[in-house]
Amino acid sequence: MPISRMELAGAGAPEALVKRILQAEPNLPVPVPIQELCARLGILKIEDLDTDAFEGGLATDAKRSEGTILAKPGGEPRRRFTIAHELGHFLMAHHVPDQPGRFLCKSSDLLRLTAKASDPRQRREVEANRFATLMLMPPHRLRAAMADCREPDLQHVLGLAREFAVGKEVAARVYVQYHPERIAIVVAGKGRVQRCYRSLSFPDVTCGVGSPIPTGSLYHSTPHRPNTASGIAARSPDLWIDVKRDLRVPSLTEQVYLQQNGFAMILLRLEPVPEESAAERRLDEGWRYRFHSGRR
Ligand SMILES: [Zn+2]
Prior knowledge:
This protein is of the alpha+beta class and 296 residues long. It folds into two domains: 132 residues, Arc Repressor Mutant, subunit A (Orthogonal Bundle); 103 residues, Beta-Lactamase, CATH 3.30.450. It has ten helices and nine strands. The protein has a five-stranded antiparallel beta sheet. Helix 1 runs parallel beside helix 5 and helix 7 packs across helix 8. The longest helix is centred in the middle third of the chain and has 17 residues. It binds zinc ion. The site of zinc ion (ZN) has 7 residues, from helix 3, strand 4 and helix 5.
C-alpha cells in the first residue's frame, strides 16, 4: 500500500479525497482494508470506545499530525463504517471538533445524510458519511458489482453488504442511490418506519418516520423467515405513496427481509402501467367527442 498523506494535499471534499486515494491505490482490494489505510494515513491506533453514548471518536490535534480512532466494539461491518467515518474527519482539515482535539460521534451522526446549511456540525457528519461510503464501496467496484442487479431484489443488497463488508443498511442506501429503477427501501423496527431511502425518481413516501408499517403491507401478511428475503408481491401503491386521482396509477411491488433483531427492510418498486394502445386511445377520444357533442 504505497499511499501517504502527501498525495492528499489540497483535497478537501470527500469525493476529491477518495479519488486521490483510489488513484494512489488502483488495486485496492475489496473489502477495503480500512485499518491498513488508516495506518498509512497517520492514524496511530484504533481503540475500543467503551461508552454506549457514542459510536465513534477521534483524538487528534488541529494540524492533524496524527490521530487515534475510537470505535465501539461489536459487529465488524458496523465498526468498519465507524472507522472510515472517523478517518474522514481526520483527513478533512476543515472539520473542527466540538471540543478541541476530540471528535465524538453518535449513532445518529453515522446515519446522517442531509444537513441544514446553517449547521456546520451536521454538515461535517454528512461529509464524513459520504467519505466512509465512497471509501468502503469505491464507485468503480460498485458499478461492476451492480452490473448484474437489473431487477431490483433485496438479495442484491445482502450480496453487496457481504462483498464490501459493510452493514446491510449502508448497502441498502447505496443500492437505492445507484439503481436505475424507481425504488425505495424502508427500514422498519418494532413495526414502525425508522428510515426510508429513495431513488431520485421515487416519490415521497407518505408513511413518515415513526409511523406504523401499513397493515396492507407484505410485512404483515405472512410470517417471514428471519434472514431470508421474501418473494416479490404486488401491493396497493397508496399504502406508501400519494396516488393522484387523475394520473395513471403505477403498480407497486414489495419485498421483505426480516432480521433476527426485529428490524426489517422493505423494498418498494414502482413501475409505470404500460402505455395504452393506440386503439384504446382512439376509442377513448371517440367517446369523449360523442359526450361533448351530445351525440350517441
Ligand atoms: Zn462524526
